[in-house]
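Risk register update: the risk of archive-format incompatibility is retired. Evidence:
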Amino acid sequence: MKQLKRLRTPRTLIENRISFAGPSSEVSIYDTYESAKRVRLDAGELLFCGMMTGRKIMHSPNEPKGQEFLPHESFIMAPGEVVAIDFPDARRDQPTTCLTVEISKDKVSRVSQRLSDSIPMLESANDWQFGCPVLHTHHSSETQRLLNRLTKLFTENHPDRDTLIDLNVSELIIRMLRHKTRDFLLTYCSKDPEANSLIAALDWINSTLSKPLDIDQLCRHAGMSRSRLYVEFKEKLGCSPVELQQQLRLKRAAERIRDGESITAISYDLGFNNPSHFCYRFKNFFGCTATEYKLRGNEEDIKSLS
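Archived output:
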């Protein structure tokens, strides 16, 4: 990665950009070395943005007052969308860094079409209409590793570079589409928990996060066999019921930590065996410890009052 470090020598202090073009996609790394407000970002194609270090405040049509954007989080912009970004903490010795992957509409459509049989509710990927035109979400450790791998591939002179990049971009698209489908289904299940068997299963998991997941009881509630339940989760959500419960627990825990609740109390309340197990899972999911997450929230509260 020496080449990448050399290329990232700043030529400008706000959104210093280096880009690497590949088949049907382009990876860019943005480093910002001083605080700034309302920096414009346009999406010509579908744009995946992964936060690497630091913090941004993102202003979009749906979040005009701003939404915090942190490491282990992503936002996805539909083609033609525009956001404005603040860099409140960027410094020369501690830059704010974001990685973006711009993906052609044709590439997204091809991958989406191949997924359509297993995700029948998936709309045309070009429309990107399940939720907001700017989708902001937490991304998993697997996605973080994928972003690191893509960055490495774009900077290497590997003989199979284009093929490997294409495969990794396809994987990123699949992760985006499945995550979007999952968020859509979780939102929908709160409105109509009995709409279908999968929605019923999601509603059950989401409403019983503090209890160990009883798969037999979940099957009875959803009206599915055990084998069918696992097939539905794997095909449509890309994870098992237990994995989904774990992710939802951690997201709920993060909300409660930001509200100032005790980490120990939260860990037991959400069904973790002990605080150490909870803290291990939390760090693996969010990329920081629960204590660091709480301190970061306290710092933000202090700044908002000053």
